[in-house]
Design a protein that fits this description.
The strands form two sheets. Strands 1, 2, 3, 4, 5, 8, 9, 10 and 11 form a nine-stranded mixed sheet that branches. A three-stranded antiparallel sheet has the order 7-6-12, sandwiched between helices. The two termini are 22 Å apart. The protein has one domain: Nucleoside Triphosphate Pyrophosphohydrolase. The radius of gyration is 18 Å and the shape is globular. By secondary structure, it is an alpha+beta fold. Helices cover 28% and strands 33% of the residues.
Length: 238
């Protein structure tokens, strides 16, 4: 999947993500079709979990700061919205992603197995923002979200990664990916072995495959998430 004409990638120093109390009008107005869609979706994939996630609105960038207001909704509402082509305007699927770089410059790409929302697509470790990411002041700690997702998907712990300051943000249609770059002291072969060993010991691993790429040429033939394609362009151009 290639970036579209309206896609953007840029760097910011920080992300200020405040959680509000607003209801999502789309979910309220489409409650009945959402329920019907959910019944069909869970027949196809019984592993879907209707947990609470956070969606993004009122995104603005000024003086190196990305600010946004987040609101809570259920996964079923998101899934219907996504399958309707991200209907409406002003709402964004905002999430964090981790660009893990080996000692010799390779970036870790992952691919989910069948039955997942992103099945078959290569991307960098990421996941939904959820209530666990909200701090005592009502803000989302997106860096902590990314660190958690990396550990859940790859087994890599914070002690194994050195975070670079700032964020690489990719805006692709209704999706907003806020990425942190992490440096790992392991070489690409060592890092690949480290992650694959973790996956082999998982009863139900989240990932079907990982790839380490050192250039855009290494991604030829891979179906990349649009935000991942943009972020890789930014990283490899640096």
């Amino acid at each position: 999947m290639k970036p579209g004409a309206g896609d953007q990638v840029f760097c910011v120093e920080c992300c200020q993500l405040r959680v509000g109390e607003a209801e999502w009008p789309f979910a309220c107005e489409n409650a009945a079709p959402i329920d019907r869609h959910w019944q069909r979706a869970t027949l196809d994939n019984p592993d879907f979990f209707d947990g609470v996630i956070l969606m993004t609105s009122n995104v603005a960038v000024k003086d190196g700061v990305l600010s946004a207001t987040l609101f809570k909704t259920r996964f079923r509402n998101y899934l219907y919205w996504r399958h309707q082509g991200f209907a409406g305007s002003g709402i964004t699927d905002g999430f964090g992603s981790g660009l893990i770089r080996s000692a010799d410059g390779a970036i870790v790409l992952v691919r989910q197995g069948s039955g997942n929302v992103n099945a078959g697509i290569y991307y960098t470790p990421s996941g939904f923002i959820d209530p666990r990411d909200i701090d005592d002041n009502g803000y989302v700690d997106i860096a902590a979200n990314i660190t958690r997702e990396i550990e859940e998907e790859t087994g890599l712990t914070p002690a194994e990664l050195a975070r670079r300051p700032g964020y690489i943000v990719a805006a692709t249609g209704a999706q907003l990916a806020m990425a942190v770059v992490f440096d790992c002291e392991l070489s690409a072969p060592e890092l690949e072995l480290r992650i694959n060993t973790f996956l082999a010991n998982e009863e139900r691993p989240e990932l079907a495959e990982i790839r380490l790429v050192k250039s855009l040429a290494d991604t030829a033939g891979l179906e990349l998430a649009r935000h991942t394609a943009l972020q890789l362009q930014k990283v490899f151009a640096a």
